[in-house]
Amino acid sequence: MVSITPDSPIGVVFGSSHKKRKLAEEGLGLATVGDLLRHFPRRYVAATELSEVATPVVGEQLTILGEVRSCESAPFTAGNRRQWRTTIRLRTDGPDFSVTLFSPYKNLADRHEAEFGAGSRALFTGKAKQFRGSWQLEQAHGFALDGEGGAVLSKLIPVYPLTAKLYTWDLQKVIAAALDLVTGVPDVFTPELREQYELLGIMQALRWIHGPDEWGQLGAAQKRFRFEEALVLQLVLARRRAVHRAQGAQSRPGRDGAILAAFDARLPFELTGGQREIGDLVAEELGRDHPMNRLLQGEVGSGKTLVALRAMLQVVDSGGQAALLAPTEVLAQQHHRSISALLGDLAQGGMLGGAADATSVVLLTGSMGRAARQEAMLRTVTGEAGIVIGTHALLEDRVEFADLGLVVVDEQHRFGVEQRAALTDKSGTPPHVLVMTATPIPRTVAMTVFGDLETSTLAELPAGRAPIQTNVVPLAEQPTWLDRAWQRVREEVEKGHQVYVVCPRISGDASEDGATDQLDLDDDGNEVAPKRALAAVEDVHEGLATGPLHGLRTAVLHGRLAADQKDATMRAFAAGAIDVLVSTTVIEVGVDVHNATMMVLLDADRFGVSQLHQLRGRVGRGGLPGLCLLVSHAELGTPARDRLGAVASTTDGFELSRVDLEQRREGDVLGASQSGGRSSLVSLRVLRDEKTIVRAREAAEALLSVDPGLTRAPDLAAAVAEVERSAASGFMEKG
């Protein structure tokens, strides 16, 4: 018997089936036997049960197990050739399906009749289609589980992730052969760890994951692989945290009677309990001699920026500088204006009228004029600027700091780890890092996506935040409701308030990069063009200004405007000189206009749940009740409408973040931009497997506390090192 190892090429088990091997290599990315064994089924079909197909969807790819009601062959002529058509009628736990197989020879048709005899059970894969009121499986392929020539390898039939012309039974057969032949499969768990955590050995787990005879066997195998993946990931993150803690950093304890104390004394309101508690924790961590690395999350308007500003002032009091990195110019400009206004003369260091302990706050963006950029860079490199606010322009090599002590990253999901590192590398010693996000993050996601950061949450909203009513405007059923929406806008303006109108596109033929994160997908997960033109800022503004909103003061805002024009528009809107601002999602984060009480989101189904939640957080910020209208052509019962219904039903950001993750692909949860190279999860799901992830994090900390190098578990150490190498490689490629 031939002996193979996990490193052997998959050709050794595909044998003479070169086409199938090529499909597995090119379509699924499987190069070795080890890759093949780790290509786990996505679901299972019980060989003794008929498939439940309650409500088929036309075009949906189905894998069904049915009982053959009838199987009949008949000849027909195609061109000048005589061929045979075999029609198989299948009974499921739902509607009947018919399957048609074509054969160029009568003996093949006879073989089909013998294989799919009446009363036998068969497994077929194909696309659902309706013809004259009956369901069919189009382009179907399958095999019989019993009857003449029928076979089944396990009582629970695995259904694998596939590529075109490669079928689940193709993989089932070669994986079964590989399991019989393979030797030397490493087990990341030592016998002691397997006993401690009640886990299967690697070979037993592989056999049961690919060919279980009962659900209990499958559950035991899944438990092992989910815990393995969680543990390896948590070990990588724990080692990152340990390396970070081991780095030296300059202590930034602040000093009594300086700018932070003066700022606190001037605050016209009381800090919330959460702001005080997290502020004290951040202040204590800034005073340590190793770098703080903390994630601060909280709902829109929870006061994260104030916590960050107080941390920046503590660093300035300690003789250092702080940098605030924002994802857009609009947000960077907003931060610069609001922080300068909050500080008043405390931000006028070196200027006539500045306070005694004042610092200087500068703005640095890519679209600034040359003279303004040079002045900002000069004040940064000399240390005159205690607080530097900017966009990606801060990451440029020629931007230098005198003594960078704190990096604040706003809206972490817009930046990758390599961009964060590009800024922190500008400090002689590792700076302290505070990452902020207004996208609520479930606990297990924080443990994975942001697992190298310690996490704090601002759960309460400051006084003065008003409730926001959210309604869906369903144009598919109620097309006239849009007219009422524009009437409602006029009513709001007549009360002296202001309104946002948000569109997914800038113009009819171009979209704002990053403006939407919810795309139409076909059955194979590929993006498809929407059936109708999406609302565009320029077109919508023209139509409103000359139509339903004629006479109101309207303006546009989007990413292709010049920086000074965007800034002037936002200033005018903040000053109340504009009634209705028609914009893309550049107003998603950071824009703070207290008199804005209403938002109309056009083609709202083109945005993700978290993005919709962020956008509506722009209204109701001044103590006045807010109204958000989600305008959509999506039909009732579609995932898009379900998404909008979820947003309209609650303002709980953490609940919505769970809905968002449940509707998105798991690969999006651990995107390379977030994790530094690990692009997806295989067995693990961050919401479903919460207990497993928590247990794995505790296990990782316990293992590293007694064996930092994992010398007692060499295969586990190798798996961790492989993920670390992958992350480092991904980082270097991006860098």
Structure description:
This protein is α/β, with parallel strands linked by helices and 735 residues long. It has five domains: 1-47 and 159-185; 48-152, OB fold (Dihydrolipoamide Acetyltransferase, E2P); 191-247 and 688-734; 259-458, P-loop containing nucleotide triphosphate hydrolases (Rossmann fold, 3-Layer(aba) Sandwich), CATH 3.40.50; 468-650, Rossmann fold, CATH 3.40.50.300. It is 38% helix and 19% strand. It has 25 helices and 22 strands. The strands form five sheets. A seven-stranded parallel β-sheet has the order 10-11-9-12-13-8-14, sandwiched between helices. A six-stranded parallel β-sheet has the order 15-22-21-16-20-19, with helices on both faces. The protein has a five-stranded mixed β-barrel with strand order 2-3-4-6-5. Helix 19 links the parallel strand 21 (596-601) and strand 22. Helix 7 crosses helix 8 (215-246), helix 8 crosses helix 25 and helix 10 runs parallel beside helix 11 (304-317). The radius of gyration is 30 Å and the shape is globular.
